């Protein structure tokens, strides 16, 4: 079977999908001596952005918090029960939704066209269909759209962290008004999605294993 170039170039520490996905648990106590390089954090973020997004708007933005000073700023908006993750993780990757991502929409699709991946008619069709939708959208619509995109990339980040041999915890226990300015972003433009603490689990601490409802009780077939 042929592997795509993208698949071939990814050298993952843990390429066992079943283990990556089904053995993922929220880790809240990390080994504080483990430091993930900014290069690797950036690589994980880049890999996570292979996620799909509405109209390929990619309405996500990342803020990496990996110094004691930045962690203190984050704590000013975080709920206290999340301090252990903040203090012990190698880094927290905060995901914000970008409500202005459509302002570069024309550039994103023009590049796809210039790279000969779509023809001019398709380019015009995409821009003509979706651009007005976003340009005339309400703040609520843009917030929801960006929140969904951010959530999808967040899930990918949780999994890619495991594929890199790390553990993670998604958390949103913070003050929704204070968090965006606390991470240095403009609240007029960005909305909070989730924080992802990344590091290696502290093996001396228990990991909370959770259960799920029977999905059959939550599923309708229409
Ligand atoms: C959007 C979101 C917000 C969360 N917020 C917190 C949080 O503030 N603090 C925390 O310790 N865990 C938080 N979690 C982790 C959940 O508690 C956890 O995913 C859930 O209990 C299932 O456990 P598991 O991740 O180990 O499968 C959050 C998870 C998600 C997806």
TrEMBL record:
Membrane recorded as keyword: no
Pfam families in alphabetical order: Nitroreductase
A molecular-function term among this protein's GO annotations: oxidoreductase activity
Superkingdom field: Bacteria
Keyword Oxidoreductase: yes
UniProt record similarity statement: Belongs to the nitroreductase family.
Name under which the protein is recorded: NAD(P)H nitroreductase
Taxonomy of the source species: Bacteria, Bacillati, Bacillota, Bacilli, Lactobacillales
């Amino acid at each position: 079977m042929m592997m795509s170039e993208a698949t071939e170039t990814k050298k993952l520490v843990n390429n066992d999908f079943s283990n990556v996905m089904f053995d993922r648990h929220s880790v809240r106590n990390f080994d504080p001596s483990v430091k993930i390089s900014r290069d690797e954090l950036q690589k994980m973020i880049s890999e996570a952005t292979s996620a799909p997004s509405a109209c390929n708007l990619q309405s996500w933005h990342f803020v990496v918090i990996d110094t004691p000073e930045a962690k203190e700023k984050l704590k000013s908006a975080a709920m206290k029960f999340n301090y252990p993750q903040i203090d012990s993780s190698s880094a927290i990757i905060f995901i914000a939704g970008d409500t202005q991502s459509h302002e570069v929409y024309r550039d994103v699709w023009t590049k796809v066209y210039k790279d000969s991946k779509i023809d001019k008619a398709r380019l015009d069709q995409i821009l003509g269909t979706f651009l007005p939708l976003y340009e005339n959208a309400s703040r609520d619509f843009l917030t929801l759209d960006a929140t969904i995109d951010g959530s999808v990339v967040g899930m990918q980040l949780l999994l890619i962290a495991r594929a890199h041999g790390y553990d993670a915890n998604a958390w949103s226990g913070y003050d929704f008004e204070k968090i965006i300015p606390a991470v240095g972003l403009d609240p007029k433009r960005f909305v909070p999605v989730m924080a992802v603490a990344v590091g290696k689990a502290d093996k001396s601490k228990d990991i909370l294993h959770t259960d799920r409802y029977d999905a059959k009780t939550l599923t309708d077939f229409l």
